[in-house]
Amino acid sequence: MDKPWREEFDDLDNECLAAQTMAVGAIWPSVAVAYALIDKGLIDKRRLLEIIDSLHTVVAGLTAGDLGDVEDRLRGLDLMREFLEFDEVQPDRVLEFLRTTETAQTLLLLLQSKPPRPTRE
Question: From 36, 38, 76, 102, which residue has the greatest number of CB atoms within 10 Å?
Answer without folding.
Answer: 38
